[in-house]
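New to this. Please check this fold:
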Amino acid sequence: MRGFWRALFGRRARRRWIHLILGGALAMPYVLVGSVVIGPLTGVSDVFTSLTLQLGSFAVGLPLAAVTALFPLTRPISVAAVRALCGVPADALADGPPRSRAARGRTVAWFTLHLGFGGVLSGMTLALPPFAVTLMALPLFAGLRDSALALPEVLHHTWALALTPVAGAAMLVALAGCAAVAGALLARWAPVLLGPTPADRLAAAERRAADLAVRNRLARELHDSVGHALSAVTLQASAARRVLDHDPEFVREALAAIEDTTRRTVGELDAVLGVLREAGDPASTAPAPTLAADLDGLLSRTRAGGLRVQADAVALDPAALPPLVSREAYRIVQEVLSNALRHAGTSLTLRLARDGDDLLITAENPLPPHPPRTRPGGGHGLRGIADRARLLGGTTEAGPERGSWRVTVRLPLKASA
């Protein structure tokens, strides 16, 4: 019994009833337009004095509602109302205007059903409760019976008058039952008529993929730029501390490298975090580092950390590289140097060469006798290098080779297209 009353008068049922009344309110302008048509056709000046004419006005107004449902904002507004009042899971409904003819047709069907069911239930909600309350009060108030016009003959019998409260309560329960059934039907049909179409699912998947790509790009840029800078600054400061008393010239060079590294990294960090800024914020003007702009500076800052780097550019002019390839190659070289600073310890040989239509980056350093322990949360450097190469259509190979650790990256020079 408790479940029965909850189904009729529970919170979900009440909210769905409100949704139906909202549909009735939306139907009223169309009913008024329908009355303008029905009145002249029937020769009646006031169609609202007849239930038949009111239903006729309602029948004329619904097709007009179906036409206006073709406006793009109809589906977003309907979906918002269903999510708020009908208890339908949010992911079962589509977002945004319909994208296809079939989706527009389903939106028209939903809007017409909502206004049709809502108009009927709103009329019942306005008419039945006062009548039911009057029936329930008839046995208690003789004046009410005397003032009531044209009471049915049967109500003059005592037994019939005693049953009027039961009839009034039954009418209210029946009204609640009709509202609950209509609300449940609309809630069941909502995912079918307002649910995402294949085009909506594809658009949502594309949005998620774009968001994921931005997040991955942000994580990769932060790891490569800030991670390299912190590693370099840490090693530069450590080297300067060890020789502070007997090699002041090296200390000055290390401090200058730390200053330059942090200054550049702040600019790069501002550029990377610009991805997170809102549309109204001014964009960062910090240029993305490239091989042509900062390869020598990158090598010099790395050497200041104590790593001996031998770099050769074979038949290659960094300034002639496509900007996209030059930028990604800079990040790859930066990550290679950062890994060598953390793990190799002493020296690294870097070679940049043009191999046909490809840029070939090769880095080799001796394996340490006791490999350092991997820090918690580390281990993303080689994965980031591989991701950058793959996005440009290139390849990456990394691993031990004859007592050395060797990284080979091949980037197509036509990747900027």
Observations:
- Residues 204-412 form a domain with the Heat Shock Protein 90 fold (CATH 3.30.565.10).
- Strands lie at 308-314, 347-355, 358-366, 395-401, 404-412.
